[in-house]
Amino acid sequence: MVNKIKLMFFFCLISVLCSACWSSHEIDTLGISIAAGIDLTESGYAVYHQVLNPRAITGNVETVGTPVYLFTQYGDNLFSATRKIALETPRRIYNAHLRMIILGEDMARNGIKDAIDFFMRNYEFRTDFYFAVARNKTAREVLEILTPLEFTPGLNMFESLKLAQERNGLTKEVNIVELAQIILAEGYEPVLPGIDISSGTADSDSAMTTLSGGKRLFYNGLGVFCDDKLIGWLSEEETLGFNYILGNAKNSPEYVYYNETDQITFELIRLHSKISAALKDEKPSINVKISIEAIIAAMEGDLDISKMENKIIAEQLLESKIKGICQNTVKKAQHDFRCDIFGFGEVIHRKYPDLWKKLKSNWRHEFSSLPVDFEIAVELKLPGQIIKPMFRKEK
Amino acid sequence: MQRTKITNHQLYSLTANGAFGGSVIVIASAMAAIAKQDAWISALLTPVIGMPVVWIYWYLGSQYPGSTFVEIIKKIFGRWIGTIAAASYVFLCLTIAYHLPWYVGNFVTTEAMPETPPYVINLMFVIAVVIAVLYGIETIARASELYIRFVLILSVLTMLLVSPNIKFENLQPVLENGMIPIFKGSYVLSCFIVFPIITMMMIYPANTDNISEAKKSIFKGFLWAGFITFITILMSTLILGSKITASSQYPTYLLAKEINLGIIFTRLEFIVAITWFVTQFMIGLLFFYAGVTGLSQLLGLKDYKRIVMPLGLITLVMSGVVFPDVIYQANWTKHVWLPYITTHGLILPLLLFLVHLIKKRMLKARY
């Protein structure tokens, strides 16, 4: 009997101690943040959190309020700014579901290392969110836009970035582990996607008045960082070149002009790039081999692609076009930015570590005079449903 | 004292748990700091270098079957020096026994529950250890057989799930800084994998039937631990890169955060944490058991179970105060742990081995 009492007491003790009472947070005391933003202000930082409104995203038809609320606070450093949000909200900000972090352009130009340290140190942040830089805007303006189709703007930005990676080569997703690795590596500089707001005719709230009214978010170009400071933007074509060189462009469209009237549009369904380093008289050089499988997506004009010689001509045109784009991108990176955004330095580091030790202290300068060769091989596959152009007159 | 016998398979799983426990979550960080991207070569080298050391352990046990390490020391060194050496060994075991709850408490309060006072988590740990030791070595051995399956499945599963994120470039350039950092890293790793097997010396000669079969079990256990450590370090370097691994406190936990297959296999990092808790429990248990039985033999007690409760309470209290903070612990590991365990794990057995050989020679020369 005494043993039974002891056992009961023991069970009660264990159940009290094991229920993690100290650190348990009920879910309705959490403000789940799905997008965060940082801006630079005169006295420090402004931190924004886009917090879900649980009433608005339930399954019911009646929605109360907007799907997310934006909370803003200012502080000298990131952590105190985040904690100050408790002054205006009854829920603690819960970061484990974070999808996007938007950095204002001023903040990006000033340096992002401290922000990254903050996001890696805190245990609540995971590693699966993406970064973006607000192009010519503050992070606040980007985070205040409501989006169609996807109720929560943070999720919209996240899914759109992931989708863009697979539909065109005009942007690049970057998560925190990758970003930290690239900043730490001496021969590699990071790029981050830029997010922009298209000017609408009406306010976002009344976006339902016309189908295309209201401001929308869209990704625009890649921002080039040197060390950890933003120094410039790549244009659309240069972004394409960047993604071709790094092999990131999946299913991206590309077109060539056969002559003044005929245009062929390809879809590059498979793109593999291999970057290798070689030594030419004690100086390093880079060789980029890109192998592409393309299909024809659209054709304007009368070109008969079923003929063998036309197919070869089309392939050659595409090869030279892609080569031109890549060369322009490398030239811009070498001369205008002087920033090794492709990781050529790291390729040299891996292959010639002794040579790299001498080069790495002056890599920005060395990179500007690095010879880069391209070898592009295009294989044209299916011409779509139509082989000969339908409306072509027999010549 | 009763000597319950444990089977060879149980000996294998005890050795494997004892060798593996200290390292899985934190060792990748120390290794990446020393050997950078060649840490995996160190992890391959360590079992090779550790084999002779483990052989010395087995040999000492095989010469005195049926006695524990404390008795072996006393028989080889004589009464006075033997008692001092054995007391030093017992002190080591008990000292490490109260670091283990601290590690577990620190991990939980850093990663999951920051407001919980660590004493509560240490209490859970110490209660489990005390109950296990009161049950005896047979129960501990049976539990270790279960744990080894569990740890193997979860470790391999975690590494498989995270393998889509591998980037082989993180391993290059290979041997960038030469072989010296690799040897340094190998030495550090052996302080975590090889030398803690010295606690097994309290268990294995006394409780096993067949000494020559025991050799195979001990080596198998040691190699198993080396293998799992190798894939942990390899995966950390392949996926996170050596710089991030070197600067994070729990690199394997960060690695598990990267698991992102489809919709289902995400947010699985606590599986790695559970594996780690289990292995920490086993190694804490082994050190505590070695300390308790050693102390009871030194004091000439008939039954070690009498002193388990007081030692358990001491462990609980000490585990709260042993390290004031993580920085102190990191410095302690770097400056104190390496020489401390080397003395008891390498130098002490070597001395025992040499003195034993000399004694045997002298005995032979007499006839």
| Computed CA radius of gyration of chain B, to the nearest angstrom | 20 Å
Total strand count of chain B, please? 2
User: If you consult CATH, what is the topology of chain B?
Assistant: Amino acid/polyamine transporter I
Give the biggest sheet of chain A: 9 strands, mixed
pLDDT average of chain B, as an integer? 86
Strand and helix order of chain B: HHHHHHHHHHHHHEEHHH
Oligomer: heterodimer
Number of helices of chain A: 12
DSSP strand count of chain A: 13
**Mean pLDDT across residues of chain A:** 83
| Alpha carbon gap, first and last residue of chain A | 106 Å
Q: What is the C-level CATH assignment of chain B? A: Mainly Alpha
Can you give a write-up of this model?
Chain A has 395 residues and is of the alpha/beta class. Chain A has 12 helices and 13 strands. In chain A, strands 1, 2, 3, 4, 5, 6, 7, 8 and 9 form a 9-stranded mixed β-sheet that branches. A 4-stranded mixed β-sheet of chain A has the order 10-11-12-13, sandwiched between helices. In chain A, helix 8 crosses helix 9 (308-337) and helix 10 (344-351) crosses helix 11. Chain A is globular and about 95 Å long. The model of chain A has no long low-confidence stretch (mean pLDDT 83). Chain B has helices at 8-20, 27-35, 39-63, 69-77, 79-97, 100-111, 118-135, 137-162, 180-193, 204-207, 211-240, 242-247, 251-256, 269-299, 308-321, 326-366, and strands at residues 260-261, 265-266. Chain B is mostly helical and 367 residues long. A two-stranded antiparallel ribbon of chain B has the order 1-2. Chain B starts with 7 loop residues before the first helix and ends with a helix. The model of chain B has no long low-confidence stretch (mean pLDDT 86). The chains are: A alpha/beta (395), B mainly alpha (367). Chain A binds chain B through residues 17-18, 20, 22-23, 120, 123, 126-128, 177, 180-181, 184-185, 346, 349-351, 353, and chain B through 110-117, 120, 123-124, 169, 172-173, 176, 240-241, 243-244, 248, 254, 257-258, 260, 266-267.
